[in-house]
Amino acid sequence: MHLQRFREPFLPIHPPSMGERLVISGERLIKGMLFNCSMCGNCLLQETAYICPLLCPKGLRNGPCGSGSHDQCCVDPSRPCVWHLIYERAKALGSQERLLEVQAPLDWTRVGHETWGTVISEARERGLLSPIKILQRSDRREQVDRMFAQIRQPDWWQGDEHYHPPASSELVSRLQSALERGEFVVTAEVKPPVGSNASKIEEQVEQLFGLIHAANVTQNPMATPRMSSLASCLMLKRQGIEPVLQLTARDYNRLALQSEVLGAAALGIHNLLCLTGDPPTAGRNPAGQLPYDLDATQMFWILRRMRDNSTFLDGREVDKPPDLFLGAAGSPGNPNLNHEALRLEKKINAGAQFIQTQLVYDLEVLERWLEALDRRNLLSKVHVLVGIGLLRSVKVAHFLRERIPDIVVPLAIIERLKQGLNPEEAGFEIALELIQNVKTIPGVNGVHIMSLGWETILSRLLNEITATGDT
Fold it and tell me: Is residue 378 part of a domain?
């Protein structure tokens, strides 16, 4: 399938020489015809089954965001998800394992410039341009692979495909301690206010205090501005609730990410959930910039190295490394669980220590997802918190089923909401039953409750969970 570019090819930041202009023109013409090349200067075609990852409108270089579907991109529904196509072709070519390598963010000094000259120069230095020398070498294939690895993995990145466990066994938060003790953990969400009124946070704290292990603070959901997640987390912490700081790649470049996390750690906020984030087009106009500077996997790679290696992305030493407990998002409802497991393995390898899932209403779907993770030996490396959402009405259930990718709402649940004399009471009972049943499933370490706009019922649900011994 020949995908069209979402944007025009990049132009060089620095004016190229006359000779380079000729190479750029030739590369742009040929690679444009063959691959719809974006001229990023950081080519990954060999690693992504010869489909350019920058055909993704978000510019993601390490896999899909989880917001789209096989048929539709979350930014442009008229397009398929590029990364689903990459996965499928890589599987056909037998090269899916190559997708586990953690790829670097764009080096913007190379964007718009050619890559052919770099390849030729490296090949010449390695003696790979001489036919006689190539035929004499038994390791020529390995030499070629090492050459391209050096080109795509700059010294300041050095991404690989291996699992990187935390360098220290020290427990840095109450949430991590509870999970390590084997407690069945309950987390919930707090939405920052749309203004600077701190009392809105206090009202939510009253619903949650003493009933949960930690609370996620969402960051600009649906690409609409709210009070900063970091400020809201600090308010939660001061009122006795352990916060989970959400960080979206959409809202941070590589400088802001490192700075924000150091500030969070200094304030005693150690639980982080790294997400790609809804596209700017999901919010109100005017839409923000595409592509993103980072993706979620790159965020893990950067933050893990700051924590474990005391190293900034630019190579400087971190004076006092941040204590971090890193979380990722998972999608049990993904129709292709092999792709989902591969996507999560890459995040876990890069540094993710816990997973909070998308909403789950079908336990068979959840069990198949856990089995897919277990086949790749992931459940022993990560804690799993299952997303449970409160269904207040049939309308909410239909919206989730029909409009949100990878959420499976069985018709039996919708029918139960319809038949009940009180849909809200039926929705409450459904959530409570799901939590009770999820607790019995091996590989599950807790639940993450999302109110879906029904915050007033949260304290009742949490009290009921506590009364039945589910925390």
Answer: yes
In a domain, 165, yes or no: no
d(C-alpha 241, C-alpha 235), whole Å = 9
Percent of the chain with pLDDT over 90: 71
442 cis-preceded (ω within 30 degrees of 0): no
Domain count, the chain: 2
Cis previous bond, 9, omega within 30? no
Task: List helix spans (H) across 195-316.
Answer: 199-208, 229-238, 254-266, 296-308
Instruction: Of 454, 392, 456, 453, give the one whose Cα is nearest residue 203.
Output: 456
If one compares 164 and 77, the residue with the highest pLDDT of the two is 164
159 is a domain residue: no
Does some domain include residue 10?
no
Q: How far is it, in rounded angstroms, from Cα 111 to Cα 153?
A: 15
Average pLDDT of the segment spanning 55-76: 87
Distance CA 291, CA 81 (A): 15
CB under 8 Å to 193, separation ≥6 — which residues? Answer: 200, 201, 226, 227
CATH code of residue 221: 3.20.20.220
Same domain, 137 and 255: no
More confident residue, 467 or 443: 443
171-187 per-position pLDDT tens digit: 999 999 999 999 999 99
- Show the DSSP H helices in 36-113 as ranges: 82-93
CB within 8 Å of 158: residues ≥ 6 apart: none
